[in-house]
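Treating backbone geometry as a discrete language has practical consequences that deserve illustration. In the encoding step, the backbone of a single protein was reduced to a row of integers, each denoting a local shape. The amino acid sequence and the backbone structure tokens for this protein are reproduced below.
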Amino acid sequence: MEVPKKGYMSKLDVVNTCPPEAKEKKEGVKYSKAEKITYYSKGTKVNRKMNVILPPDYTTEKKYPVLYYLHGIFNNEDGLLEDGMGTIEIYNNLVKEGKAKEMIIILPDTYAPADGVGVPPSFDPEHVAGYDNFINELINDIMPYVEKHYSVAKGRENTALAGFSMGGRNTLYIGFTHPELFGYLGAFSPAPGVFPIEGEHEGLMKPEELKVKDGKEEPIVKMISVGTKDFVVTNNPETYHNALKDNNEEHIWFTVPGAMHDSDAVSAGYYNFIQYLWKNLDKEEEKEEKENEEKEEETAGPGFEFPDGPLPEWDAPVVMEVPKKGYMSKLEVVNTCPPEAKEKKEGVKYSKAEKITYYSKGTKVNRKMNVILPPDYTTEKKYPVLYYLHGIFNNEDGLLEDGMGTIEIYNNLVKEGKAKEMIIILPDTYAPADGVGVPPSFDPEHVAGYDNFINELINDIMPYVEKHYSVAKGRENTALAGFSMGGRNTLYIGFTHPELFGYLGAFSPAPGVFPIEGEHEGLMKPEELKVKDGKEEPIVKMISVGTKDFVVTNNPETYHNALKDNNEEHIWFTVPGAMHDSDAVSAGYYNFIQYLWKNLDKEEEKDDKKDDDEEVEDAEEVEDEESDEKEVEVGTEGVEEEDSMEEDTNEEDEKEEKDKEEDTDEEDEKEEKKEKDKEEDDKKEEKPDQTNGEFPETQIPDWNAPVVMEVPKKGYMSKLDVVNTCPPEAKEKKEGVKYSKAEKITYYSKGTKVNRKMNVILPPDYTTEKKYPVLYYLHGILNNEDGLLEDGMGTIEIYNNLVKEGKAKEMIIILPNTYAPADGVGVEPGFTQEHFDGYDNFINELINDIMPYVEKHYSVAKGRENTALAGFSMGGRNTLYIGFTHPELFGYLGAFSPAPGVIPTVDALTGEHKGLMKPEDLKVKDGKPEPIVKMISVGTKDFVVSANPESYHKALKDNNEEHIWFTVPGAMHDSDAVSAGYYNFIQYLWKNLDN
């Protein structure tokens, strides 16, 4: 720790670490939100993104200083918002304690290649040039944009620059090049490259130039810090520190005990740095700001000019307008979502979001969506469906982000009896007709991809959902809602097809339904935002928006007024204090799903029929039958209408007879189905298991597969009391336990001839004095090296907790990217053999590139007895293939919910697999050593890999390969299934159970 002994920098009692509580959210503290915005860069000639963090009580009445905070290499504008960084929490906590001042924090994307495109990520000069060019992007594009669109206090004394790794390196370069612009500089774990590196980088300046030139003002604060265990940037930060000393540049220099190139190092630097900003440590009164300073007008971004007058005030009024009669009058709408509604509660079962891939006939590409099923989903019951649409520049995961509460609000309300069970579909709503689209922007060319979603939804998504899930059809069982662009599309699609959607919820809907002069021709005129004559009215129509939403501004109110003018009864309300954020979304959603499926009608419902058609009052039945007739006439390509209704006679005395006929028809259909099933079973019995290229079909198991547990009765594998589930507390961080960090590293692959990434998890007290065994842990298809670090997986927590309890040994865990196409590029993701080839080739990547790299760069105990292989889904499939192909390399094998493809099969979801080996080859060849542990597990509700894990289990049994086989009760293809396998598996490793 070296701090100047006099002057402003001597005033803070700098600490070597960030207190953990500084990164925690506390009661009574208002926290900022990171708002992602898109701006046009004149320098790179493309649209680019950055995150903007405003003070919680931001107002245009006040001018705020600005901190530009820069991420590291191979990251983007979201990097400093990752878990553990504490960017928002530290800032707001310190402000609350009076230790920091309010400010605006800008998190830009610092990779800014001059051509707007750049080259593949690597440490090559060609790629690094994109970071070198950021100096121009910052000064010529980002700073002018921020100063134009926000209430900014200008001048170097109100402008700070800080960053981590490559961002810290750029902070030193830009800050000392332009001290007239930046009064405060903080370089946390700065990367090499400011100075020349022989054979690597010609440098941005010489060591003797790292100083303020004569005649320019000194930065008020200069700080450099680094972790004591940072093997990534090694001694480069100290090199910069020594150069500043040699150049007589007063500055702060300290190291962070035990920190690597990680969030501990970042947060320690940041925690100290922001306490220095804006002369916060000077206690003398500040001068009054000039009142004659021109205020910049707030706008919502490029192109948002509206034909209906000026933008609303930042603080719009709190309003609530609900119809006084009819179904929409039945709910006591509230302006905000209660915070506890978004929390997980004891005794409530929570759904899981399952990401699936489907083929879109419209766009001719594979596309993704998330499916949220009820926790006790069963094919014995039919469920209504809510299609829930995200905002612009987002995707199918957008409404699952922290704070949205999509799953928690739904399950909590169902538990309280305030909402009904349903299936919720979260699709990707950017659906360009050519399947490719154009770079993100607010231009009509990009927005056209969202306009086309109406076709994707009706012709591809809805038919897929109705085919693959147990769905109650009809408009009375179908809802549409969305946020921002999703809310805008809800209005457009819902009023265009009221015969398909009975419930519409538009939360903070974006502009574009109506014409915007010079920007968008509009999807309909204001007078057309209504149900056309002869079509049925939606049962519920709702619009809401935050009072501080400067993004969509007065557009939601424009839609509200148009509906009023068109005599369309609807609910309209604002959310106090909410911006274009999760508070606005959750308030709308919380109210909306309580309305769905006639939930507020309190009359008793009759028992559901097997096909789940809900009985209603006589008048409603007639109306529904007429509606169903219309739906059959309108039709939608690809949507199957399973039951056509007979013509309505409109005579009450014929209804009872008709019901009897329908019941008889249902019984006849059941008998026919039984006969068909019997014939198919007979055919299957006659069909040989495997002959001349014919593959045995893998049957999808019952939704509720049995709970099983088979463990060898003798030998090493018999020593652990295997459990079917992972105890929840094993995935929690506990006091007194040191937790590892996942370090993302980049290596060059000789096999694929590209730079590739992997995460490395070292023991908390890793030292080169000791040799550690290694677990290679493989993710599933359509994921990457971060997949097994997602919430709920417990990869780090389970490992460190078990080591602390003495139930597992210390090890190094490697999380590689298992998609390794031979050409380094690959093909579009999908369930095609061409895509699978990239995973099949991973065997070469692992053995020829990854393992040699790990053994060279880390303190590794070599040999099969010190090397384990495990994985989930596609990773589990590859574990079996690689492990039984090379038992001389891997002593422990764990396949959790392994995907099809090791042995020949025709899978219901992914099609035909020729197989990587025959069932009789899934064994250790003569003369090779047996793996010490072999384990296979799967969830009882896993409809994704279905019976494939059991097929592998049976093949091993047939081949006399002793192994552990168990199922995880209630788990789907999800983190519960993964963590159960992993929790048991790592207790076996390294002969841990031998006493």
In short: Residues 768 and 859 are 5 Å apart (CA to CA). Residues 283-314, 603-703 have pLDDT under 50 and may be disordered. The first helix runs from residue 87 to 96.
